[in-house]
Design goal:
The protein is mainly α. It is built from 8 helices and 4 strands. The protein is 40% helix and 6% strand. The protein has a two-stranded antiparallel sheet. Strands 3-4 form a two-stranded antiparallel sheet. A hairpin with a 5-residue loop joins strand 3 and strand 4.
C-alpha cells in the first residue's frame, strides 16, 4: 500500500443509537477512545462555532447525524463530532429551513426513530405522539426507559414503572428533556409534518409493522393479535 495515500475507513453509525452506543463502536474501530467521545459530547458550547444553528445545552444527543462516514483510525473524538454536526446541518437543518423548534423536532424524531421501522408509519406515530401530548396523556414509550437505563434490551413486566428518570415517559408528563438517540432525516421530517390521525395507541407486530387504535378496547384487541402473532409458528 502507498503510505502517502490517506487511510480510509468507512464506519456506519446506525439511526437511533445514543451517544454511549456510538462511542463503543468508535472505540472498536480505533477512531477514538469511547470516554473521550462521551466527554466531548457533553460540551456542546465547544462546537458552537463549527455550525450555524444553535446547539443544545448539556449534551449533543440527537444532533450527531447517523450516517456512513470515512473515519480513519486515530482521527479523534473532536474531528468525528465536527463531521457529524456538519452533516446534521447539511442534511437536516438546511433542508428543513432552519426550524425555530429544532430541539423539539429532534426530540420527537428520536422517539419515532426508536419506535418505528417502516417509513410510511413514521408520520402516523409522530401524529399519535402529538395527540397524546395535546390530551395530556403520558407518552408511555418503552425506548425512553431503555435510554434511562442506557441498555437496549427487552423490558420485563412492570419494569417501566420502577425507573426513576426524567426520560421515563411512563412516569413523566410530556416529552423527555431531550432526544434519546440520533434520528435520521425521515423521522425528523415526520416530527415536522405529523399525520393528522384519530389514533392514540399502537403496538408492534413481529414483522416490525404496527397495529393502530383510536380507543383502549381496540388497543387491547391489537395486543392480543400481537401475542398470537408472536406464538405463531415461524
Amino acid at each position: 500500500r502507498d503510505l502517502r495515500s490517506p487511510l480510509r475507513q468507512m464506519v456506519r453509525i446506525p439511526e437511533g443509537w445514543w451517544i454511549a452506543r456510538t462511542a463503543r463502536l468508535l472505540e472498536e474501530r480505533q477512531v477514538c477512545p469511547a470516554d473521550e467521545y462521551v466527554r466531548l459530547c457533553a460540551r456542546p458550547a465547544e462546537f458552537q462555532r463549527a455550525v450555524s444553528f444553535p446547539l443544545p445545552n448539556g449534551s449533543l444527543e440527537g444532533y450527531l447525524y447517523p450516517d456512513t462516514y470515512d473515519l480513519p483510525p486515530l482521527l479523534g473524538a473532536e474531528a468525528t463530532i465536527r463531521r457529524q454536526l456538519k452533516t446534521f446541518e447539511a442534511k437536516v437543518v438546511k433542508p428543513l429551513g432552519n426550524p425555530a423548534d429544532l430541539h423539539r423536532l429532534v426530540t420527537i424524531g428520536s422517539l419515532v426513530e426508536a419506535e418505528v421501522a417502516l417509513d410510511a408509519e413514521r408520520p402516523i406515530v409522530a401524529g399519535i405522539i402529538e395527540s397524546r401530548l395535546a390530551k395530556k396523556m403520558k407518552l408511555q414509550i418503552d425506548a425512553t426507559v431503555l435510554y434511562a437505563l442506557q441498555e437496549w434490551k427487552e423490558l420485563g413486566p412492570g419494569v417501566v414503572n420502577t425507573i426513576d428518570s426524567p426520560y421515563n415517559t411512563y412516569r413523566i408528563q410530556g416529552l423527555p428533556p431531550g432526544p434519546i438517540g440520533s434520528p435520521g432525516l425521515k423521522s425528523i421530517e415526520a416530527a415536522a409534518k405529523p399525520a393528522a390521525t384519530e389514533y392514540l395507541y399502537y403496538v408492534a407486530l413481529p414483522n416490525r409493522s404496527h397495529l393502530f387504535a383510536a380507543d383502549y378496547p381496540t388497543h387491547l384487541a391489537n395486543i392480543r393479535k400481537r401475542q398470537a402473532a408472536l406464538k405463531a409458528p415461524k
